[in-house]
Amino acid sequence: MIVMRNATVDSFVARGFAELAMQGHGPQRHEGAVTRQMLIDRVLHGIDPMTETARDGVTGRPHRAPPIASRITSPEAFVAAESFVRRTREYRAARDAALFEPAYQRGSFLVVLPLEDVLGPDYLRLVEGVRIAGGGAINADFDRGSLLAVFRHVPGSEPALVTMYPITR
Question: Considering only CA atoms, which of 59, 67, 45 is closest in space to residue 133?
């Protein structure tokens, strides 16, 4: 285990989080700054947490209400999860397939891993989500859930994280 001062860890997390926010929309829609109320507004009213309006922060078009909205509850967990995903064989296989297999070549690829593998045995306290049920929003169940991460290729660089969020099983 590497021992770091709290200020150094905080700086590392802040720098990593800022880099991820510039790569895509993962932190803006699926991290701890997104509140439970924002998740509810997203599934019930199509409010994008990025803009806090019905306008999609990525496309500029109307934001669609998803059936489930989820988040990782802290910047530390978000940065650690992204770093973990990039170190897996699943990431390398998906990246290489997207780059080199002619039948697959697209600009992006996704990786799905068990939440427990990515965030550890206490993963349920590090994720939150809501889903539509009976005209309202109820808690999403992430027991034995997964983490979905979408990356896009960047010429001459490592792939950029587009988005990353917990999904139910």
Answer: 67
Packing angle, helices 6-23 and 75-86, rounded to 10: 70
Q: What is the pTM of this model?
A: 0.81
SS3 letters across 92-125 = HHHHHHHHHCCCCCCCEEEEEEEHHHHHCCCHHH
Contact 19, 12 (CB under 8 A): no
Please write the tens of the pLDDT for every residue from 16-69.
Answer: 555 655 555 555 666 768 899 999 999 999 888 888 888 887 788 888 899 999
Q: Check if the beta carbon of residue 43 is closer than 8 Å to that of residue 36.
A: no
The DSSP code for 129 is E
